[in-house]
Amino acid sequence: MSDAPVEAFEPPYYAVVFTTVRTDDQNGYRETNTRMEELVREVPGYLGMDHAQNPGGLGITVAYFRDVDALTQWRTNLEHRAAQQRGREHWYDTYTLHVAKVERSHGFKRS
């Protein structure tokens, strides 16, 4: 992942906010996470992803999708669904998922 945020896109598009606290059992998490990042990049309409984690363990991932079709393709991907199940069984103490339609977007970058 980049240290720079995902660029601002022309709205409308969708943001999926996945906020987590993970368990101590992270066996297989890194490999699965890498695979999910590879898979989501193949979805037509996937725009990018931002991720941050604080020292206390709260993680926030925001994925951006051009339209509902792209979001649906990702949500219903069978390999992604299997990873979600493993996450509930092993890797997450808690998580929330929010899907929002972005109606305004802009950015700034120092020259």
UniProtKB/TrEMBL annotation:
A Pfam short name: ABM
SUPFAM superfamilies reported for this sequence: Dimeric alpha+beta barrel
Domain called ABM: residue spans: 12-85
Coiled-coil boundaries: none
Protein name listed in UniProt: ABM domain-containing protein
Organism for this UniProt entry: Lentzea pudingi
